[in-house]
Specification:
Blueprint lengths: L2 E3 L2 E3 L3 E3 L8 H9 L4 E3 L3 E2 H5 L3 H6 L9 E6 L3 H14 L4 E6 L4 H6 L10 H14 L4 E8 L7 H10 L4 E8 L10 H10 L4 E4 L5 H8 L5 E4 L9 H11 L8 H36 L5 H10 L3 H12 L1
Parallel strand pairs: 3-4, 3-11, 4-6, 5-6, 6-7, 7-8, 8-9, 9-10, 10-11
Antiparallel strand pairs: 1-2
Bound molecules: flavin mononucleotide.
Flavin mononucleotide (FMN) binds next to loops.
Length: about 325
């Protein structure tokens, strides 16, 4: 089922959640090919954009096959976030600008006052969102968490202010900053946010299959953002689309398809980052692709010992084919 974020048509309800270090063009294209309705790129820093950091500017590049795609920025001050948003608005092909208000890591949330730290200050949440909305022409969305910690859960307050400031959608991860990724995401707080605002809400946290997606849809959310559930399993997008939009439960991908997908992702990464980085990055992805299969930890160790991708290819071919 399609829906709109501002004037951008999202063809289905399954979104690739932003993941720093993972959601580069190669992985995004793999997820798109498997049916992700919206791709969210890994976050980029407002300061790095201002300083024209070449690595960061490269990260903002969009492939023509990625639309619709959202580019996420993070920062702590109104002015620098506005500058970064203007850059995404006018100098990139992204369709949507997302503001990160959920990152829990110390470097972002504690040292820089960005990410989830912003949730502690609803006035600032409003000010940032409004200033960004008013300075760009692309739709603006915000990604939040339930709150800073259990004693300060304020997602409803923040969500209402984000809507009032003119954002066109909200993604909410049902954990607090203090939770990081522990425990289970709280779907009740997602439901409360859905009921409090009129813009589309994208529910996020712990969706890994049809069952968990059904639970998430009970919140009334318009769409679901999937992060870790897509690692080594980009097939989740076609599975959810097939089930929720066509009523069909698909078979799991066979080993040949997993092998082909790994090789395809490697080729895309090779083009994007060159041999050394592609080799390094593919190791973790391979570990995710084969996780849970017989003997996979031994194969993972073998893969991690290799620097030459031809050897890796051989190991994986012997294992999967
Ligand atoms: C490795 C990793 C990197 C992440 N990077 C980002 C990020 O750049 N921006 C963001 O908003 N969330 C980031 N997240 C959070 C995810 O988008 C998502 O909210 C979280 O993982 C919960 O969803 P899941 O249970 O489907 O993984 C990251 C998560 C992981 C595991």
């Amino acid at each position: 089922m399609n829906f709109k974020i501002g004037d951008v048509l999202i063809p289905n309800q399954f979104v690739l959640a932003p993941m720093a270090g993972i959601c580069n063009e190669a992985f995004r294209l793999i997820c798109k090919e498997q049916g992700a309705g919206l791709l969210m790129a890994e976050m980029v820093s407002d300061k790095a954009i201002a300083y024209k950091n070449q690595k960061t500017l490269k990260m903002t590049k969009v492939n023509e096959h990625e639309h619709p795609i959202s580019m996420q920025i993070f920062g702590a001050s109104v002015d620098s976030l506005v500058l970064a948003a203007k850059f995404v608005d006018t100098c990139t092909d992204a369709d949507i600008i997302d503001i990160n208000m959920g990152c829990p890591v110390n470097k972002v949330a504690k040292k820089s006052g960005a990410g989830a730290s912003l949730l502690k200050d609803p006035e600032l949440v409003y000010e940032i969102t409004k200033a960004v909305v008013n300075s760009v022409s692309k739709p603006v969305t915000v990604k939040i968490r339930a709150g800073w910690d259990k004693s300060s859960i304020n997602a409803v307050t923040n969500a209402k202010l984000i809507e009032k400031a003119g954002a066109k959608a909200i993604t909410i991860h049902g954990r607090t900053r203090a939770d990081f990724y522990s425990g289970k995401a709280d779907y009740n707080i997602i439901k409360e946010v859905v009921e409090a605002v009129n813009i589309p809400v994208v529910g996020n946290g712990d969706v890994i299959d049809i069952h968990s997606a059904k639970e998430m849809f009970k919140t009334g959310c318009k769409a679901i953002a999937i992060g870790r559930g897509a690692l080594g399993n980009p097939f989740i997008f076609r599975e959810l689309n097939s089930y929720f939009n066509d009523g069909i439960i698909l078979d799991k991908p066979d080993n040949k398809e997993i092998y082909d997908t790994i090789m395809h992702q490697y080729d895309l990464l090779l083009k994007l980052k060159g041999e050394r980085l592609a080799n390094l990055e593919m190791r973790s992805h391979i570990a995710w692709y084969i996780k849970g299969k017989p003997n996979s930890s031994k194969i993972k160790e073998e893969v991690f010992r290799q620097n030459d991708f031809n050897k890796v290819k051989e190991i994986i071919a012997n294992y999967l084919l």
